[in-house]
Amino acid sequence: MTLDLDICHRQGSFTLEARIHSEGRLTALFGQSGAGKTTIINAIGGLIRPSQGRIVVNGRVLVDTQSGIFVPKHKRHIGTVFQEGRLFPHLNVRQNLLFGRWFTPRRERVADFSAIVDLLGIGHLLDRNPATLSGGEKQRVAIGRALLTDPQLLLMDEPLASLDEARKSEIYPYIERLRDEGNVPIVLVSHSVTEIARLATSIVILSDGRVTAAGPAEDILRQTNLFPQTGPAETGALIETHVLHHEEAFGLTVLQTRAGTLTVPLLDLAPGAPLRVRLRARDIILSLQPPEGLSALNVLPGKVSSIGEPDGSSVDVMLDCGGDSLVARVTRKSVERLGLRAGLPVHAIIKSIAFDREAVGRAPTEET
Ligand SMILES: Nc1ncnc2c1ncn2[C@@H]1O[C@H](COP(=O)(O)OP(=O)(O)OP(=O)(O)O)[C@@H](O)[C@H]1O
């Protein structure tokens, strides 16, 4: 899918001036409260009319203020999922799911009800009333309802914001499947680094109504300075791995990366399954020698590729570990003490705490 958006919109004292080009299957709009994320979603969905500019989805012009084009909301074929699922309380789950269909002419109905129900794991909920569902279940039904309208694009405005961490972890795999198998590109609004690291293929960062950075998720997340609020704590590298084998006696799974293996808590996946692993910059320690007598199980050899600008007492050290780009956040003092410089061979020691559940997700599969 391609999304081309170049708009200017004023609302009150706020001005949005955003230009976005994305080919990602799941494009995350990330930024602090008030940055303009929802305004962009509303402009794409047709809820607001931008003061100026163009919006083109998959080559179809939805808005072009110069030539007076403004496709109305109901003709855009765009599905939206909001923070609160907004299910109809008087309809059961099946009726909620089918509701969206009523607005799609019969000949244009392509979405397969059972396939969507299976994808989202909501088959057992069909006769239930929304009031009896958990927050995560409600959101899965809301996603299903949006998909059944046969959208060409799915907008998700902080769909997980009202859920606790456990519910979020429960729903991530469904969004990953949707991203990889659903054939509907997604634009997701989020202000959680954890969420975008897990789900996004492309990231657009917004600040005060402007795009401050945009690109493939792995390129953006490595630049911890782009995330001044949460960056140093949460950002880092995304690497693609696959399951090598399990060590069930120890409750562990061994993953293959380009530079070596990583051992993580046992995963219920077959050998060969592709995975995306987030390695946070703050969870990586550097050593000049191969470490010995250490409890950490994960050590990847590599070399320093560059050293970032200091940020207070810390600095980001970019590493090349067999072709995987990692980033370690260390103190300036360590840089000096270890004599770190581009080209120097090092060992990246990854703290075992780095592998909490939400940091290990399914790797986006190639678009077909
Ligand atoms: N109808 C409106 N009239 C005037 N100002 C508005 C209107 N709607 C939104 N704004 C302002 O526009 C700015 C951007 O709002 P927007 O909802 O797009 O931000 P956001 O990045 O989605 O924030 P959040 O993460 O809090 O949802 C904010 O300063 C908001 O107060």
UniProtKB/TrEMBL annotation:
<dbReference type="InterPro" id="IPR005116">
    <property type="entry name" value="Transp-assoc_OB_typ1"/>
</dbReference>
<keyword id="KW-1003">Cell membrane</keyword>
<dbReference type="InterPro" id="IPR003439">
    <property type="entry name" value="ABC_transporter-like_ATP-bd"/>
</dbReference>
<protein>
    <submittedName>
        <fullName>Molybdenum ABC transporter ATP-binding protein</fullName>
    </submittedName>
</protein>
<dbReference type="InterPro" id="IPR017871">
    <property type="entry name" value="ABC_transporter-like_CS"/>
</dbReference>
<feature type="domain" description="Mop">
    <location>
        <begin position="293"/>
        <end position="359"/>
    </location>
</feature>
<dbReference type="InterPro" id="IPR050334">
    <property type="entry name" value="Molybdenum_import_ModC"/>
</dbReference>
<comment type="similarity">
    <text>Belongs to the ABC transporter superfamily.</text>
</comment>
<dbReference type="Pfam" id="PF03459">
    <property type="entry name" value="TOBE"/>
</dbReference>
<dbReference type="InterPro" id="IPR004606">
    <property type="entry name" value="Mop_domain"/>
</dbReference>
<dbReference type="Pfam" id="PF00005">
    <property type="entry name" value="ABC_tran"/>
</dbReference>
<keyword id="KW-0813">Transport</keyword>
<dbReference type="InterPro" id="IPR027417">
    <property type="entry name" value="P-loop_NTPase"/>
</dbReference>
<keyword id="KW-0547">Nucleotide-binding</keyword>
<dbReference type="InterPro" id="IPR011868">
    <property type="entry name" value="ModC_ABC_ATP-bd"/>
</dbReference>
<keyword id="KW-0472">Membrane</keyword>
<dbReference type="InterPro" id="IPR008995">
    <property type="entry name" value="Mo/tungstate-bd_C_term_dom"/>
</dbReference>
<keyword id="KW-0067">ATP-binding</keyword>
<dbReference type="GO" id="GO:0005524">
    <property type="term" value="F:ATP binding"/>
</dbReference>
<keyword id="KW-1278">Translocase</keyword>
<keyword id="KW-0997">Cell inner membrane</keyword>
<keyword id="KW-0500">Molybdenum</keyword>
<dbReference type="InterPro" id="IPR003593">
    <property type="entry name" value="AAA+_ATPase"/>
</dbReference>
<feature type="domain" description="ABC transporter">
    <location>
        <begin position="2"/>
        <end position="233"/>
    </location>
</feature>
